[in-house]
Amino acid sequence: MNVPDDLRFQSSHEWVRLEGDTAVVGISDHAQEELTDVVFVELPQMGRAVDAGDPTAVVESVKAASDIYAPISGEVIEVNDAVEADPSLVNTDPYGSGWIFKLKIKDASQLDALLDAEGYRALIG
Amino acid sequence: MSDELLCSPLEDLHLELGGRLVPFAGWNMPVMYSSILTEHQAVRSAVGVFDISHMGQFVVTGADAGSWLNGLLANDLGKLSDGTGQYTFLLNEQGGVIDDLIVYRESPERYFLVVNASKVAEDASWMTSHLQGEVEFSDESSQWAGMAIQGPEASAAFASAFPGEELPSRNGLARLADGSIVCRTGYTGEDGFELFCASESACAIFQRFMEAGATPCGLGARDSLRLEMGYPLNGSDLSPERTPLEAGLGFFVALDKGDFVGRDAMVAQKKEGLDQRLVGIEYLEKGAPPRSHYPVTDADGEVLGELASGVLSPSLGKGIGMAYLPIAFTKPGTEVWIDVRGRRFPAQVVKKPFYKPTTIPA
Asked: Per the database record, which ranges form the GCVT N-terminal domain (chain B) (predicted)?
């Protein structure tokens, strides 16, 4: 199972990558494998302010719809239109072209509350 | 019902094949192996094999078996000859659906019924409480394992797995040399058959079909395949509060065959006219997958009903579903909207099936 060392993870299986004051968010390789074929991604509204833990996007497989929770507080400044057009990117490249949204964050220290790669590996066993 | 899940005789094989088991109708059954989309496609283009051991089997025998069943079931049993079957309903006095099932006539004094897993106990208790005449009813559900082999290459898979044996023709039933029962029926719209065998033989037979090219398929694909055909699922699209007429399945109800349970209610309903009917609904464009219980609204956002079933059709690439709507909204072409988490997707009422299989079943 691919768990990149430079990412932080939420126990609900979102990953976050910090790029300056921007947090890129997606779902983990483990999550995409559990969901299997992603057939739809509902992206958040641009400019929406979210708190850590807020349901922010929805990823759907044939069988189920799963909420994607913001791992950190911030404002939605970019959404990945590519996964809206081709939801299978979430399956094929969950840490790359399958990212879901970007947040402009205020408080990077919130990241400390998240799991590091080692902690996430332990969680998913 | 106890919390203990029933195990299919194929459970170890499912796990070996990477199947994901989920509770369904009191059974622990595979929802998929690796991908619902791939399994769905295998059935549409080649052949798939499904475990249907959860389904129930009843055997009704005796001099009065036929006339007794004809008084309990909605379709006309008189149309059956030996070795043929028909889709039918077990109804309550109000004409509501207790279960939808297939009944096969093996001989004038022996009938084989295949019923829904979730309704085995209820069906059996309803039927035994209505017993009369020279009739013996037996619930053989625990003795039979079952599998459905479906797809344009299903007949070829059968020929390869059972050389020298013959498939019955459409809706027919035949006994194989090993005592298994094979029925030329299915729930996918493709050619195919359902095979019921002794539990001990199930793994070997399932593997023989895999060796013959069948892709193991789970309940996820079974649901998307049946919905593309507009086939109802009891508990979602059928209920004790709805008659087969409301479900748009009057074709399988023989109001003219004489008395049967539920007939009077449906005759009255037909006379008064239906208030609502189950219709097919298809998105006009791509959108969030429709699912059961999502509201169906008119142009003004007024709620007309809710989806009984819904799925993103793998074959069509867009959302499809079924809903009971007021008669004024049941004409094909009527615009409706599906409300998904507050976002509305435009759709229209369409004729079923949503998808037309490219191969014509025998």
From this structure: 11-257
What pLDDT sits at residue B1? Answer: 47
Residues of chain B contacting residue A63, judged by C-beta atoms under 8 Å apart: 31-32, 36, 220
The CA R_g of chain A, rounded to the nearest whole Å, is 13
CATH of the domain at B294: 2.40.30.110
Distance separating alpha carbons of residues B51 and B206, to the nearest angstrom? 8
Substitution target in A36, A60, A90 with the highest count of B β-carbons within 10 Å is A36
Percent of residues, chain B, with pLDDT higher than 70: 98
Strands B144-150 and B192-198, by their bridges, are: antiparallel
Of B236, B46, B242, B55, the closest CA to residue B149 belongs to B46
**Is B39 marked as a binding-site residue?**
no
Distance CA B220, CA B202 (A): 21
Report pLDDT digits (tens) over B53-67: 999 999 999 999 999
Q: What is the span of the domain harbouring residue B329? A: 275-350
Which residues of chain B does A62 touch, with a Cβ-Cβ cutoff of 8 Å? 36-37, 40, 220, 224, 289, 311-312, 314
Mean pLDDT of chain B: 96
Question: Does A36 contact B31 at a Cβ distance shorter than 8 Å?
Answer: no
Q: What's the CATH number where B156 sits?
A: 3.30.1360.120
